[in-house]
Amino acid sequence: MRFDFFDTPKPPLEFQPPHSLVGFETLEKAESDRRALVSLLRGGNAAQQRLAAIISPCQRGARCHSAACPVCGRQFRMRFAGHLAELIANDDADWWAVTLVPKDRTYPLGGLRQFSPSQFKDRIRKQLERSVLADAAVVLGIDFAVQIFSQPNKAPIWRPHVYKLMRGHSTESIHAALDHYYYPPVSHTPRPIFSRKIDKKTVLRVTSYAFKCKFNIRSQIGGVNLSIPLIL
Ligand SMILES: [Zn+2]
Description:
The protein is α+β, with helices and mostly antiparallel strands. The chain has helices spanning 17-20, 27-42, 46-55, 70-89, 117-129, 171-182, 203-209; strands spanning 95-100, 107-108, 138-147, 157-167, 193-197, 213-218, 221-226, 228-231. The structure holds zinc ion (ZN). Zinc ion binds at residues 55, 58, 63-64, 66, 69, 71-72.
């Protein structure tokens, strides 16, 4: 996938993550990640070596535009998160951040290729279209986490799930519309729906979470968190 956004103007300074969001990755960190990725890909198969050849020459003034490039990904994330934060902050309506975790979408490590992002997106779209949320503006990211269990005989699994930002409505209407698709909770999915109203003062943190590529460990649940933003 090739990014095609470099002519998009940057958002105003207060909505630029490197200026206004503590902890946003630095250009130096992204460059170091790019070099590490190139070195890893060069030792891989033919397709991985082709990708290394695309990302390797990326430099200021001649960016590679590859969605796999940490530097170009950071550039996209700055614009995506910034412009979306500006839109939400200046909107009169309330916005909600909603996480949806379908309990039937689990894949063994090495088996994630069975997952179809398009089918997943269509399924979520249909759930919304059939509900009171049908008129809501929604920005949806697909988040990929690895769930690791405390029981040693239980293998880790991939858990694709939804992180969406939605205009209007309320926690009550979100649950009324979606509970029957996601409830009851099961042991590996104790909280299938989590919604919270977005605090517009910290909106940049929320929007930057909708597109990211990073690894972190959260208690017993570790995650490679890679979100793909999709406009529904
Ligand atoms: Zn690049």
